Amino acid sequence: MREINLDIYKNLRREVDESWINLHPIQRGGILPPETRETLLSFADGYSVCDYCLEGRVDLVKKPPIFDFADDVAKFLNMDEVNFTPGARGAKNAIFKAITEPGDMVVIDSLAHYTTYIAAELNGLKIVEVPHSGYPEFKIKADDYAVKIDEVKRETGELPASVLLTHADYRYGNLAEAAAVGKIAKSYGVPFILNAAYTAGVMPVDGKKLQADFLVGSGHKSWAASGPIGILATTYEFADKVFRTSTIKGPWSGRAFAKKEVFLFGCPPVFGAPIATLMASFPHVVGRVKRWEEEVEKIRWLVKELERIKDFHQLGERPRRHTLVSFETPSFHRVAKKHERRGFFLHEELKKRKISGIHPGMTKLIKLNTYGLNRDQLQKVADAFHEIARSYDIGVE
Mean pLDDT of residues grouped by 10 in the chain (397 residues)? Predict the structure, then answer.
């Protein structure tokens, strides 16, 4: 058996710092502004927001202003009530627990995050997938939700328990037609769950305009917060269900926990650094969503620049409407087959140029996200890819 080596845990530091350009698809929207980094240090200790927990539930704490913050986030998303969860996955799991029964059918998009599938499995649900359009755009059509809802009704005699749409998917960054799906769900009277993990916090999202009954967000992906933390927003119609409080009572002790929310396990394990950073970044987030069109223009520019490289092809919808993007890169993959470092060569070439976020070992298909990068940084990214291509005799127009 291996002996414990405590030295490997000492002086841990991340290799990537503020001097690097980080293209990681799941990190761009989660990068902390400087003022939030100071907050992170202040609230780094354990459940550090519990100093003035007088109600027995941390989301009701008023100092720091968590109680007010939940209300403000609800207003920002144009929903009625909000609470915080262990990531977007925790929000989806809580919703399924609250509004479904084992054996129920739920309709989801075929680009849904894996945690949507796991949440359905955990709650004993059966899933029906809305297909995508296939290569190269992989788009989800809103009308196909009506087709699948009718299919469930025809085969089971009942409507699905809910429909879920991924607002922007994590594979191709396609921006789905949420308002159209919301309208369809409303016409059938089926609860509509919108997974906005890659949209709320980086772009304007109006839950009621999109006719969402539930809106799911990810603080560490899109709200410039330390993870893991998620956002569960809902309407008054469903708030009592998903945020219902405990009714159990100890038969001998008489102990009861009437203020604790059942589906969130009383106090979700996010009330330390995650909630503190989420609050500290809120003014930053509110401001930056107004610049979404500028962010989209920047990714469209970079797509054009990278497609100058021989056999670089953007996947997903065109023109881009989201900053997360995938490319198939067969020219780099051909290099990888002969390179002594195989698929790691690209990651290492970018690392030399202090660019991170392209998954190590991936050359056949790569994903990146440019959200929040400035024009100079984008130019450096384009130049780096062009330099790498030319150094391996790959043509650049």
Answer: 92 89 97 96 89 87 94 98 97 98 98 98 98 98 98 97 98 98 98 98 98 98 96 98 96 96 90 95 98 98 98 97 98 95 95 96 96 98 98 96
145, 150, 153, 155: CA torsion to nearest 10 = -110
**What is the crossing angle of helices 273-280 and 66-77, to 10°?**
60
Amino acid at 121: E
Distance of CA 235 to the CA centre of its chain: 21
Nearest residue to 108 (alpha-carbon basis) of 187, 231, 186, 194: 194
Q: How far apart are CA 39 and CA 107, in angstroms?
A: 40
Displacement of CA 328 from its chain's centroid (Å): 22
DSSP three-state, residue 192: strand
Tens of pLDDT, residue by residue over 319-365, are 999 999 999 999 999 999 999 999 999 999 999 999 999 999 999 99
User: Which tokens in the block code for residue 125?
Assistant: 């649900």
Q: Are strands 214-218 and 192-195 parallel, antiparallel or unpaired?
A: parallel
Q: What is the per-residue pLDDT across 174-226, written as a single tens digit (0 to 9) for each?
A: 999 999 999 999 999 999 999 999 999 999 999 999 999 999 999 999 999 99
Residue whose C-alpha is closest to residue 286's, from 27, 69, 82, 87:
69
Residue 63 CB burial class (10 angstroms; 0-12, 13-18, ≥19): exposed
Domains, in order of start, for the chain: 6-30+290-391 (3.90.1150.10), 34-280 (3.40.640.10)
